[in-house]
Fold this sequence. Notes:
Blueprint: E1 2-8, H1 15-32, E2 36-43, E3 48-54, H2 57-63, H3 67-77, E4 86-91
Antiparallel strand pairs: 1-3, 1-4, 2-3
Helix pairs in contact: 1-3
Protein name: ABM domain-containing protein
Amino acid sequence: MVYLEITLKVPNTKRADAARVYQEYKAPFLNTIVGAKSKELLVREEDVQVLHGFDTQENALAYLSSDMFTSDVVVELKPLLDAEPDVRVYQAA
Length: 93
C-alpha cells in the first residue's frame, strides 16, 4: 500500500468547510480514481491531514495531476488554507 498524505493548515474557524470538501469528494475519489483504496481525514490541533491509500506510487502521484484534484479539490480548499499544503508519499513497509 502507498499513502499520499496531504497536510493542510486550516484555522479552526474554517475546519467545518474543509471537512465538507473532504466528504464531498471521498466517494468520487474512491469510485473513480485509478488505484484508490482508502481516504481518511485526520484532525490535530495544529493541522488537518488527508491520508489517501493507493495500490501504487504511480497512481498516487497521478492523482495529484487529475482533474478532480487540480480543478475541484484544490480550488475549493485554497481559500481555507493558511499555508501551502505539505504533500508526501509513503510506501508501507
